[in-house]
Amino acid sequence: MRNSIWDPTAKTAAESAAESWRARPAAQQPEWPDADELRSVTAGLEKSPPLVFAAECDLLRRRMAAVARGEAVLLQGGDCAETFAGTTTDGIHGKLKTLLQMAAVLTHAAALPVVKIGRMAGQYAKPRSQNQEHRDGVTLPSYRGDAVNGLEFTAASRRPDPQRLRKMYEASTTTLNLVRALTTGGFADLSQVHAWNRGFVADSHVGEQYEELADEIDRSLAFMKACGVDTRELGTAEFFVGHEGLLLDYEAALTRTEAESGRTYATSAHLLWIGERTRDLDGAHVEYFSRIDNPIAVKLGPTTSPDTVLGLLDRLDPDRDPGRLTFVVRAGAERIRDLLPTLVEKVNAEGAQVCWVSDPMHGNTITAASGHKTRRFDAILDEVRGFVEVHDALGSHPGGIHVELTGDDVTECVGGGNAVLAEELHHRYETACDPRLNHTQSLDLAFRLARMYRERGPVNARPRSLR
Ligand SMILES: O=C[C@H](O)[C@H](O)COP(=O)(O)O
Ligand SMILES: C=C(OP(=O)(O)O)C(=O)O
């Protein structure tokens, strides 16, 4: 950055200010065995080009402002943990196609623009409940994502390796490059709505529903063309990327200040979020996030208090700027209806317009009899339904969803379209961390959420107090 040609010779004052997090306790950071090696890797990253640019982050911030105002819907999705080995054309293609299909379903039903963010091109680090993992009498450090160590259960693989931060940057670059090519090079053209389903199971109920919708979109496009509307704008998709800003050494190394505006950005992604385990008001993550100008999000788990939410609002969105802050609620199906109303009311009473988004995955994780970590599709759906119900009752906007998904036909979550049975979990259980929705389950969720939006009716048909 710095006027687009960025000068790596010295940190600007704003970049130095963005280092203030170092004086605070940083939760969930790896114990890097070699501090000199870490410094040498981050020094290399400081000299590397940014992955995203300020104008793109500002554009996403404007799109998120539309979500906050109830004029758009957010769809964010991708792997729980991206892996270096999973950085393949097919893998990236599959996730992108799934997200584009879900977005088409939601746009059609909600009659609102869908802001699309991949949980992609940077989601390589994981916070963990336990620092160590025990297997057959052997204890090793937990897997913390490919950015830190390897999944294989050996001492060598589990040793944190700072060189992995460089690999994270490279894998993110590769992914983002393909995503940019696919979303702007014709593949995301709405006239390809049928082609996005190619290679996926089309003979299920969900597949049939999708084909019907795609026919309808085709007919609408033909109608628009016949009326003389220029549909070329539908030839590309606006697509952003985001990940949990967990590894602060990595994020700090990619933080840049734009010379012209003096604004400081995390340039590893358009949007970063703070996880449930690192949102301590006095901690390093909140401090770092308070210094960057990207649109940001914070996860809110089942024990979140209204005071914490107000504290986060003051620290991260002091100007009450719509689009700046998103709260991603992941309370669990059993808690969402009790927890959310007070939080929304408190924020509203502050006059703040944040985006409210549902992550129906992380509060609904259970262990199956087979020992697999899994999630029931019904619980996921119930949390989304509870989230929408609460917003309906309060007259606020259910801004969208943030989900862990893949385009692959994995068997990690139970139920949903083409129901996966608990006994089938071992068939294709491929996640490096938490269970993801497969392609059919993802589309199924999109159709069901679409129905909820449709039942609410178009925005301008709702009484003004309910918009
Ligand atoms: O994705 C979120 C967390 O990293 C994950 O749920 C942690 O899993 P754990 O509880 O097995 O450590
Ligand atoms: C760790 C995650 O979620 P949470 O912080 O909500 O547990 C995640 O989304 O990867």
UniProtKB/TrEMBL annotation:
<feature type="compositionally biased region" description="Low complexity">
    <location>
        <begin position="9"/>
        <end position="27"/>
    </location>
</feature>
<keyword id="KW-0028">Amino-acid biosynthesis</keyword>
<dbReference type="InterPro" id="IPR013785">
    <property type="entry name" value="Aldolase_TIM"/>
</dbReference>
<feature type="region of interest" description="Disordered">
    <location>
        <begin position="1"/>
        <end position="34"/>
    </location>
</feature>
<dbReference type="InterPro" id="IPR002480">
    <property type="entry name" value="DAHP_synth_2"/>
</dbReference>
<comment type="similarity">
    <text>Belongs to the class-II DAHP synthase family.</text>
</comment>
<keyword id="KW-0808">Transferase</keyword>
<keyword id="KW-0057">Aromatic amino acid biosynthesis</keyword>
<protein>
    <recommendedName>
        <fullName>Phospho-2-dehydro-3-deoxyheptonate aldolase</fullName>
        <ecNumber>2.5.1.54</ecNumber>
    </recommendedName>
</protein>
<dbReference type="Pfam" id="PF01474">
    <property type="entry name" value="DAHP_synth_2"/>
</dbReference>
<comment type="pathway">
    <text>Metabolic intermediate biosynthesis; chorismate biosynthesis; chorismate from D-erythrose 4-phosphate and phosphoenolpyruvate: step 1/7.</text>
</comment>
